Amino acid sequence: MQMMLNRAGTYLGLIGLGWFVPIVRMATGESPGEQMRQIWRQLGIPLLAITLFIAVWSQLAPRITTSLGAVPGPAAVWDEAMNLVADHREQRARREEFYARQEARNAELIAADPSADVRMREYTGKPSYFDQILTSLKTVFTGFVLATLIGVPLGIAGGLSPTINSAINPLVQIFKPVSPLAWLPIVTMVVSAVYVTDDPFFEKSFVNSAITVTLCSLWPALINTALGVASIDRDLINVGRVLKLGWWTKVRRIVLPSALPLIFTGLRLSLGVGWMVLIAAEMLAQNPGLGKFVWDEFQNGSSESLARILVAVFTIGLIGFLLDRVMLALQTTFTYSATR
Amino acid sequence: MSTARAIHRKGFLSRVGVLGALAALSTLDAHAQLALEVDELNFGFIKLTDMAPLAVAYERGFFEDEGLYVTLEPQANWKVLLDRVITGELDGAHMLAGQPIGATIGFGTEAHIVTAFSMDLNGNGITVSNEVWEAMKPYVPVGDDGLPVHPIKADYLRPVVEEFRAAGRPFNMAMVFPVSTHNYELRYWLAAGGIHPGYYAPSDITGQIGAEALLSVTPPPQMPATLEAGTIFGYSVGEPWNQQAVFKGIGVPVITDYEIWKNNPEKVFGVTAEWAEQNPNTHLAVVKALIRAAMWLDANDNANRPEAVEILARPEYVGADAAVIANSMTGTFEYERGDKRAVPDFNVFFRYFANYPYYSDAVWYLTQMRRWGQIPEQQTDAWYDATAREVYLPDVYLEAARLLIADGLASEADFPFGTDGYREPQNEFIDGIAYDGRQPNAYLEQFEIGLKGDDHATDAAALSAN
Fold first, then answer.
1. How many beta carbons lie within 10 A of that of residue B129, not counting itself?
2. Cα separation of A158 and A152, whole Å?
3. Which tens digits make up the pLDDT trace of B170-181?
């Protein structure tokens, strides 16, 4: 039981549910005083802080009057979040109507001319808030996977060979601090010139945003991988040399397992940077995700716009937090099994 | 706005949507469909009330009646919009009348863009900041009712600009794009009041050579925020961004473009020449749907405008508060807070043959491009005519009109059949100068400020500085 609780505790802690363990412990009658302190620290204090934050926010927000009305408080933001959910449902209903109309039209065309070439087209209405979240996630993952595919192998090469390392190091140092806003115009022009097809599988705006994410999230993965590989115990490398392991076996059996914790740290940072950068990229590239949602609402300038933007702010924050936790969970899982 | 009201509005909207869909289904049979080359289309627009024909054609099912499946996408600014039409990401777009012309003659991005449908007349205004309004107010004549007499000329702004210049403060104003109607209207108004808005030259495309008022570009929806931030002291823009300034209390609209040039042509629906050539039937079908939308918008003395306001207020279209959009869309215009006047023709979508792409309209834009140096060299009258014919396609428009008449959805009197594409000479400009599109060079000679004959921007600026 103790063992199980300890193991479960590690995972629960990762997803922010660590306070669950002391509750179970208390239920099993294990030193209630200590458990109460644990619960207070892990659950009570965070809840208190959040309550305090909401209280201060709802007190201060109405005092700042912008030209779009007062800064919305928690209640207004919650209402707007519910409106976005209602809007999502309405959009789904409109989509059904759209398909129904299209089917009726197609049936009519076939009735008039049985050989008519009919097909169903995608819904042409606006994406709902949830569609936009999905688009953002797809874009950031595409960018992140590309960054991983480039960053990790380069990092391994750099970590193994000081020559390669000193070759790529200056470039890394120069490109690392560049803002996505600087990359985007260049990416846009290059993509327009290179990515020319009659029937594009991906929207250009999607490609632009994903590549911008790649360019900015590449560096943490690369640097940490290189660091992880370079700091492998020399003895391990020497053992590999004695055993006359091939290059690929060496990488697979010795380098990857030892460097995995740092590689994952790098990937976690990469995904975090990617998510942050994505919002800016989407704003400018007009990729229909959360960034565009914020931009469009800013442009709308209606009395609900600020509350909607705040809904997006919290969504972005929560998703960023979840992404980080997922990476951390993956890291824990992999590094445990790899070291054993 | 309270949530309860917002939700109520949404309920109302969805009911309207269903009714619209039913109406669309019932007209289906009366309709002869063209053999379309493509039926899935992406159209771009900028968040302005004059994109209404596109939103209405979509929401009322006019596009679907033609068998078109159209996606409407708001764009970040006019340059992005034009570039995406050129690269083919967008099949067509709501454009500034000057954009197809500017692109075709190679000012800015060069590409052959054409238009067969003029989207509206009027619809813009010039707003100044509260500070500037207070400073110019003493010079503005007041009527018997104690309110300023309109139209307010730039003559009353002139002393303010001089004060700014004497104090070493640059008098910055914003318009939406170098080839925008707004740029030419603002320049026209300023120059008519003796304020020099500056020239363009091939070596200096800022358009500020010899300028007393410094004009620069800001995307329409950012105008109020930029004015509020104090970066600019006034702007020329389409609706709802002038009314937004009134509602937010950050500025005062001083004049509408209706008063600068009565019933001036404004936005057009632009596509690339290549697209128009490859998809002639689709192009006709699009123009048919847009004509029906324009008719709907002006039907029965603007009876459908309140419904149009509801559509435009949705976040995916213009997205501003319905009250702000309604202010100008329903035949009124609010100048100072509370000074709301009737301007029934502030937004015209169909009346006065608004949609017919007149060559003379294109020529007017070309004359303004020449006047301000965007066309650096003198051109012959024949060149103006030939360029207008390259860009404006009235034949496509009339063909679409004939199809609608055959469908029984419009009548012959709605369209100017038999015109040669030139309007009669017009003289309803704020400075009283008459415009005859057949004689662009003679027209330019009449202006005190502006390039004419074989003037060059750099020499002209040097001369006026001496």
1. 20
2. 10
3. 999 999 999 999
Q: For chain B, what is the radius of gyration of the CA atoms?
A: 22
Q: What's the rounded Cα separation, in Å, for the pair B463 and A254?
A: 79
Strand B40-45, strand B92-96: pairing: parallel
On average, the pLDDT of chain A sits at 86
Are the C-beta atoms of residues B173 and B180 closer than 8 Å to each other?
Answer: no
d(Cα B41, Cα B86) in Å, to the nearest integer? 15
- In the chain, the amino acid numbered B279 is N
Phi and psi torsions of A232, nearest 5°: -65, 140
Q: By 3-state DSSP, what share of chain B in percent is helix, strand and coil, each rounded to 5?
A: 45, 15, 35
State pLDDT tens for residues A293-332.
Answer: 998 888 888 888 899 999 999 999 999 999 998 988 888 8
User: Looking at residue B142, what is its pLDDT?
Assistant: 92
- The neighbour count for residue A42, using CB atoms within 10 Å, is 20
Q: Do A286 and B228 touch (CB under 8 A)?
A: no
Give me the pLDDT at residue B2, please.
41
Nearest CA to B80 out of B47, B106, B54 is that of B47
- Please answer whether residues A293 and A128 qualify as being in contact, where contact means their C-beta atoms are separated by less than 8 angstroms: no
**CA dist., res. B276 & res. B395, Å (int):** 12
Strands B214-217 and B172-175: parallel
> Which ipTM value was assigned to this complex?
0.74
Which tokens is A199 given?
Answer: 């029937």
CB contact under 8 A, B7 and A83: yes
pLDDT at B35: 85
Q: Find residue B129's DSSP bridge partners.
A: B251
- Show the CA angle centred on residue B292, arms to residues B287 and B294, nearest 5°: 90
**Pairs of residues, one from chain A and one from chain B, whose beta carbons lie less than 8 Å apart:** 95
Q: Name the nearest CA neighbour of B53 among B332, B357, B296, B351.
A: B296
| pLDDT (tens digit per residue) in B80-136 | 899 989 988 899 999 999 999 999 999 988 899 999 999 999 999 999 999 999 999
Closest listed residue to residue B85, CA positions, set B136, B116, B41, B121 = B41
How many other C-beta atoms can be found within 10 angstroms of the C-beta atom of residue B151?
13
CA–CA min distance A125, chain B (Å): 6
Residues of A in contact with B80 (CB under 8 A): 286
Top pLDDT among B253 and A46 is at B253
H-helix or E-strand containing B276? helix B273-278
- A339 pLDDT band, cuts 50/70/90, is very low
| Residues A160 and A255: beta-carbon distance below 8 Å | yes
- Please, is A52 exposed, middle or buried when counting C-beta atoms within 10 Å of its C-beta (0-12, 13-18, 19+)? exposed
Interatomic CA distance for residues A184 and A276, integer angstroms: 14
The SS3 of residue A292 is helix
Task: Judge: B319–A121 Cβ closer than 8 Å, yes or no.
Answer: no
B200: phi then psi, degrees, rounded to nearest 5 = -95, 155
Three-state DSSP state, A232: coil
Q: What percent of chain A has pLDDT over 70?
A: 94
Structure tokens at B462: 């040097």
Q: State the helix-helix crossing angle for A129-160 and A256-285, rounded to 10 degrees.
A: 140
What is the C-alpha separation between A67 and A77, in angstroms, rounded?
A: 18
Measure the CA dihedral B130/B131/B133/B135, to 10°.
160
The dihedrals phi and psi of B465, each to the nearest 5 degrees, come to -75, -25
Candidate from A35-49, A70-84, B176-190 with smallest mean pLDDT: A35-49
Q: Which B residues 314-353 touch A at CB under 8 Å?
A: 315-316, 318-321
The answer to whether B337 and B245 are in contact (CB under 8 A) is: no
**Inter-chain residue contact A101 with B71, CB threshold 8 Å:** no
Name the residue with tokens 């730039």. B154
Question: What are the residue ranges in chain B where pLDDT is below 70?
Answer: 1-32, 460-466
